[in-house]
Amino acid sequence: MTKVMIFGTQDPLSSVIRKQLLARDETLVLYVPKKNQTTLLDPQRESMFQGDLLDLGRILRGMIGCEIVCLCEMPEPQVTWRIIEAMKLLDLTRIVCLVKPEESFMSDQIPETKTTHKKARSSQMTLSIRMIEEAMCDYTILHLPAFFA
Question: Which InterPro entries does this chain map to (predicted)?
Answer without folding.
Answer: NAD(P)-bd_dom (IPR016040), NAD(P)-bd_dom_sf (IPR036291)
